[in-house]
Amino acid sequence: MAGKKVLIVYAHQEPRSFNGSLKDVAVAELSRQGCTVTVSDLYAMDFEPRATRKDITGALSSPEFFSYSVEAYEACKKRSLTSDIIAEQKKVQEADLVMFQFPLYWFSVPAILKGWMDRVLCQGFAFDLPGFYDDGLLKGKLAILSLTTGGTADMYGKTGASGDFRYFLWPLQHGTLHFCGFKVLAPHISFAPEFASEEERRGMVASWAQRLKTIWKEEPIPCWPPWYFGQ
Predict the structure, then answer these.
(1) Nearest to 179 by CA among 231, 132, 131
(2) Which terminus in the chain has less CB density within 10 A, N or C?
(3) Is the per-residue pLDDT at 177 higher than 70?
(4) What whole-number distance in Å separates Cα of residue 56 and Cα of residue 66?
(5) Per-residue pLDDT tens for 180-198?
(6) Which burial class, exposed, middle or buried, applies to 173 when counting CB atoms under 10 A from its CB (0-12, 13-18, 19+)?
(7) DSSP per-residue string spanning the chain
(8) How far is it, in rounded angstroms, from Cα 142 to Cα 161?
(9) Largest Cα–Cα distance of the chain, in whole Å?
(10) Rounded CA separation 120/65 (Å)
């Protein structure tokens, strides 16, 4: 949709990977719609995933005992976080939609993306106390996970070896994105592209491109326990 701003937070080491193809088609389709698309390519940026005292550029509020959450909160209020964190927060603040593109690692995100969440979505920027879930500081924005799995789709059913895929989405979609106020769109999961034929992989990419044509018309999921675990 013309005038909309999209941030794609992309976490894959290889530009020619399947994840890279999904990212590229998203950039192409959303740009075709007139959106302004920004990509944070975390590996290419050599993004620092570790949350340490180096993230605070000014004096610590409690130098005798370091608490990252406390110091990041105080630094956020004083604009004394490091420039890489502030730059990513600015991208998030400007975005109407934040998209996360990544391969599933151990039912979660790659460490570099987890570090992005830990450092960028800090108290005072993404949430406060009070000021979380439906009242999170990023309310009014949309978020979506686009991810790939190693396992096949049947492994992620309720009776599959890995359990319902919604189970592993709980900490990401609800505990992180919804907590910060995002309205969360249904995830886009490309199951086991590594074991698919070239034709099947092309179909997966085309399916993502097709969905993106109407992404702005989608309604967010009801991001509460019943969606993940049933009644």
Answers:
(1) 132
(2) C
(3) yes
(4) 11
(5) 999 999 999 999 999 999 9
(6) buried
(7) -TT-EEEEEE--S-TTSHHHHHHHHHHHHHHHTT-EEEEEETTTTT------GGGB-S--S-TTS--HHHHHHHHHHHT-B-HHHHHHHHHHHH-SEEEEEEE-BTTB--HHHHHHHHHHS-BTTTB-SS--GGG-TTTT-EEEEEEE-SS-GGGGSTTSTT--HHHHHIIIIIIIIITTTPEEPPPEEE--GGGS-HHHHHHHHHHHHHHHTTGGGPPPP--SHHHHH--
(8) 31
(9) 60
(10) 22
pLDDT score at 1:
83
pLDDT in tens, 27-41: 999 999 999 999 999
List the Cα angle 86/118/184 in 5-degree steps: 95
Structure tokens at 208: 């993502």
Q: Is the pLDDT of residue 231 over 80?
A: no
**Rounded-to-integer distance, Cα 191 and Cα 115, Å:** 24
Nearest C-alpha neighbor of 166 from the set 102, 100, 223, 99: 223
Beta bridge partners of 118: none
Confidence (pLDDT) at 60: 95
Name residue, tokens 């340490």: 52
What is the Cα 13 distance to its own chain's centre? 16
Query: What residues contact residue 221 under an 8 Å CB cut-off, 6+ apart?
Result: 173, 184, 185, 186, 227
Residue 199 pLDDT exceeds 80: yes
Q: State the average pLDDT for the chain.
A: 96
